[in-house]
Amino acid sequence: MKTLLLNVDEHVRVFILKQAQQWADERYKISRKEWKKLLPKLLELWPRQLRTRSPAVSAALCEVALFSGDQIPTLFEIIPRHLCKVNQHCFIDTTSWKFKSGTIRKYSHEIADILYRILPENPYDWPYGMSDIIKILEEENKNINKNEKFTTLKRYLSTLDRI
């Protein structure tokens, strides 16, 4: 699998991640539990070579982790070594996150740390919807302002107000 991931292009890597995310989704109750158990193993064997990193793969890795629910802490320990900065051309599905289930509230610090890793300093280069996520993180967890990475993201975002 590692050799395959090394030798395919970015589109195939993203497709593999999206497929794994879909199989682990709650809507597929038959296979969900088995696939959720396999997600950490898939990400552990994900190649670390620079050529396998791209903004699109980073966005897909974040989505997989964010949709994993209770596995967020486990996956957020694994994926940072595979990430690079994303850009406005990347798509991170922010509309489907389970806001009502408390995912953002429960894992707000982990989410802020990952967003800090992938978002560039210029908020104009952020994928669509990321500024909304920053606001939602703050609304859901009042203590998030003590998180240094979150406050840095807020500072980046405040530059939009000055322009």
Automatic annotation (TrEMBL):
Q: Which domain of life is it from?
A: Bacteria
Q: What is the name attached to this protein's record?
A: Uncharacterized protein
Q: Which organism is it from?
A: Bombella dulcis
